[in-house]
Amino acid sequence: MGLGYQYRCKKCGRRYSVFLGIGMGAPGVYENTVKEIREGRYGEEWKTLFEQTPYAAINPEKVLYVCACGRWETGVDLTLYAPNDPDAVAEMKYGEKTVTEWGYLPYADSRTLREHYHVLKRRYRRCDACGGRMRRAGRQEAQSLPCPKCGEPNAPAGDMLWD
Ligand SMILES: [Zn+2]
Ligand SMILES: [Zn+2]
Fold first, then answer.
1. Which ligand has the shortest distance to the CA of 130?
2. How far apart (Å, rounded) are the C-alpha atoms in residues 58 and 153?
3. pTM (predicted TM-score)
4. By CB atoms within 10 Å of each CB, which of 49, 55, 95, 142 scores lowest?
């Protein structure tokens, strides 16, 4: 389940919100992100690593990134995961078929990643504004995000759960 915060800037009135975690749309997000990796949208290195690692996986959780310059954004963590034991993963069932029959891992939830996978390569995110390396932030920081328009620090107007 995901968690979100809604904001309304007390200075300029801009409304903005942030959503973190896993939602109902996660399998779709997973599939799309894998497609984009395979298309090379995140670079040749990511495409090659993903394709050369049998049953490679990603984590479809949405995370918050913050930069020293004050910019922030949310997105899927593109860190790549590899199976501890590819033969064991091959026999896991997704719907009617096993991973071998699918030919790839259709979806990875956090439990699957924790129990059967390890990090193959971490992905760092670059800030569009200053080029600096963005830091992965926790939920605590999601409750004090500055206005994306004027930079005013704000407190959330409300929180919501999404699923
Ligand atoms: Zn503002
Ligand atoms: Zn920056």
1. 2
2. 33
3. 0.81
4. 95
